Amino acid sequence: MNDKIKKLVSISDAPISAQEIIAPDGWGGLKRKLLGLLSLRNGFYAFGASLLVRPLGDGSCPFSVERWNAADLWRDCYKLDLPDLYFFAEDVFGGQFALTEDEVVSFDPETGAIESMGNSLEQWADSILSDHDYFTGHSLAAAWQRENGALPAGHRLVPKQLFALGGEFAVDNLMCVNEVRGMRSRGFFATELKDVPDGAQVSFRLVDWAIGKKYK
């Protein structure tokens, strides 16, 4: 493993899962590199719970990487033309990090926008370490936790007013939300926003996708 990955693992919290790592069928390319990362520490939080790398195998709080990528958990709410993405980590706002066939990318849950972070997990780890506040939301997460206590496992900080709609990066614009609920609700917005031109006025009736649904 590259020194940047080892460094990131070394400053992270305890492993989320103690389960032995077993390579899933068909895991090659960047997924094989992810397997190497998880072999060092099978899922972890870092930077005060701002960065979450999901575990392989058992994991219900937070969800394992396999369950997180299930089509019916939250991805079905994003009715967008997206490439094949495998989500493995996220920032404190639920901004996702994912693998494509040959890149590591970021995924904005509010808009579905995708940006390249390089062609290796080493480059991704280097970016995180070089500017962890920007890529994980650490400072704002720390401020929120000073006022409200530790962020519970399986939860993220979601803006009351979407950042994409002018919501402030401020503690009073954040609420602690179940990780799946946060993604499903913003999937609705991302789908509705995809055809809205820049500068247009928008209004939404919020539908709580999580009511009555159990996430297992």
Task: Please tell me about this protein's structure.
With 216 residues, the chain is an alpha+beta fold. The protein has 7 helices and 8 strands; from the N terminus they run H-H-E-E-H-E-E-E-E-H-H-H-E-E-H. It has helices at residues 3-10, 29-40, 65-68, 121-130, 132-136, 138-148, 179-193, and strands spanning 44-46, 51-53, 86-90, 96-99, 104-107, 114-116, 155-159, 174-178. The chain has a 6-stranded antiparallel β-sheet. Helix 1 (3-10) crosses helix 4 (121-130).
How far the N terminus sits from the C terminus, by CA atoms, comes to 32 Å
Radius of gyration: 17 Å
- Computed structural class: alpha+beta
How are strands sequenced across the largest beta sheet?
1-2-3-4-5-6
Q: How many separate helices?
A: 7
Task: Write a brief structural summary.
This protein has helices spanning 3-10, 29-40, 65-68, 121-130, 132-136, 138-148, 179-193, and strands spanning 44-46, 51-53, 86-90, 96-99, 104-107, 114-116, 155-159, 174-178. The chain has 216 residues and is of the alpha+beta class. Strand 1 and strand 2 form a beta hairpin.
Please write out the topology.
Layout lengths: L2 H8 L18 H12 L3 E3 L4 E3 L11 H4 L17 E5 L5 E4 L4 E4 L6 E3 L4 H10 L1 H5 L1 H11 L6 E5 L14 E5 H15 L23
Antiparallel strand pairs: 1-2, 2-3, 3-4, 4-5, 5-6, 7-8
